[in-house]
Amino acid sequence: MSDSPSRFLGNHFAHCSKKVMRKSNADRRRIDPLILFKMLVLQQLFNLSDDETELQVNDRRSFEEFVGLGVINDIPDATTLAFF
Fold first, then answer.
1. How far apart are CA 54 and CA 75, in angstroms?
2. Which of 44, 45, 35, 46 is nearest to 77 (CA)?
3. What's the pTM value of the predicted model, to 2 decimals?
4. Which of 6, 42, 55, 83 maximizes the CB count within 10 A of its CB?
5. Burial of 35 (0-12, 13-18, 19+ CB in 10 A)
6. Torsions phi, psi of 71, nearest 5?
7. Can you tell me the distance from the alpha carbon of 7 to that of 30, in angstroms, rounded to the nearest whole number?
8. How confident is the model over 13-54, as pLDDT tens digits?
9. Under a CB-based contact definition with an 8 Å cutoff, are residues 57 and 67 in contact?
């Protein structure tokens, strides 16, 4: 299979993010549910806490690429991940 796991997840669950995304009353920047889902996948695979997951996505380039964030993007914090 030539597709990466990240691309597979992105294609498979793209329709879900459109249904889940809603307008925020607080005018906060919305975080794509697919990004949070991928962070939960990493959390389960590597047995990480919410805080450790945030730290590792910030620290490891491979985690950052899997989640689909670039260097200049803001990583969702541990509280956002916990509430997801």
1. 7
2. 35
3. 0.62
4. 42
5. buried
6. -65, -35
7. 21
8. 555 555 445 555 555 677 888 999 999 999 999 999 999 999
9. yes
Amino acid (1-letter code) at residue 41: V
Question: Cα–Cα distance between 64 and 75 in angstroms, integer?
Answer: 9
**At which residue do the structure tokens 């939960």 appear?**
40
Token reading at 79: 């509280």
d(CA 63, CA 39): 8
- Burial (CB count <10 Å: 0-12, 13-18, 19+), residue 29: exposed
Cα–Cα dist 82/5, whole Å: 23
Q: Computed from CA positions of residues 38, 40, 46, 52, in that sequence, does the dihedral angle turn out positive or negative?
A: positive
Q: Are 12 and 5 within 8 A, CB to CB?
A: no
Q: Which two tokens stand for residue 77?
A: 């914090």
**71 close to 64: Cβ distance less than 8 angstroms:** yes
Percent share of the chain, pLDDT over 70:
63
